[in-house]
Amino acid sequence: MVKIRKPKKENDNILPIENTEALNDTLNKSEEFINNNKNIIYSVLGVIVLLILGFSAFSYFKENQNNTAQEEMFQAVYYFEKDSLVQALNGDGNNYGFLEIIDEYSLSDAANLSKFYAGASYLKLGNYENAIKYLTEFSSSDLLIQARAYSLAGDAYVEISDLENAIYYFKKASNENPNEYFTPNYLLKLALVYEEIGDLNSALDTYEEIIEDFKNSPEYQTSVKNKSRIEGLLL
């Protein structure tokens, strides 16, 4: 049996071979454009190369700085944990303290963490203005330590009787990654400051939040008692 071959369908997606003259014309125009604008093109390429080299150099410098700063920080943290806060802040003559790490390695993650430790140290020493300065400059993607920094800033503001800012930072602390371990304490601080300024309704709402959401916390019983007391005052 003879097979009848079907004619092949034309493939509309195949591009026709370009005309040689048209191709040459395009190449000539491209070469002419490059020749006429070569200074601009070289300048742009030079800037791109410099940016790439600059970014690479900065990343290398930052990584080295952070490694060195972390080594320097070890002794300062040791002093902090021993409550040798002056040495923790200023160093001991052989090792850097947190303040020197912040100044000398300003681009490092260790310098940023040193701001937290410096702020906490100043708070313990009763230097509330510097405590606020360093705690509010500190910024971390670690939500637990960030919340702690907000809470300590709130404590410092309470000590200087700036209760509006204390409320602001206790709110930030309680809203940062809420959890059963630390959030009830931040909320209790917030409620007590509300009471201090006479905003009993906000204090009541905050105590109720602790009671409803954190029944297993140490702050639960205190909140129950304070809620009952405030309800009596609001009658």
Key words describing this protein structure:
mainly alpha, Serine Threonine Protein Phosphatase 5, Tetratricopeptide repeat, 2 domains
Structural description of this entry:
The protein has 235 residues and is mainly alpha-helical. The protein has two domains: 41-139, no CATH class; 141-235, Serine Threonine Protein Phosphatase 5, Tetratricopeptide repeat. The protein is 74% helix and 0% strand. Helix 5 runs antiparallel to helix 6 (128-137), helix 8 (163-175) runs antiparallel to helix 9 and helix 9 runs antiparallel to helix 10 (200-213). The radius of gyration is 32 Å and the shape is flat. 31% of the residues are buried. The model is unreliable at 11-17 and 53-58 (pLDDT under 50).
Share of residues in strands: under 5%
User: Biggest sheet: strands, sense, closure?
Assistant: none
Q: Strand-and-helix sequence, N→C?
A: HHHHHHHHHHH
Measured as a percent range, the helix fraction is over 70%
Instruction: Tell me, rounded to a whole number, the average pLDDT.
Output: 85
Number of strands: 0
The dominant shape is: flat
The count of domains is 2
Spatial separation of the terminal alpha carbons:
106 Å
- Low-pLDDT residue intervals, each spanning 5 or more residues: 11-17, 53-58
Which structural class is indicated by helix and strand composition? mainly alpha
Radius of gyration from the alpha-carbon trace, in angstroms: 32 Å
Number of helices: 11
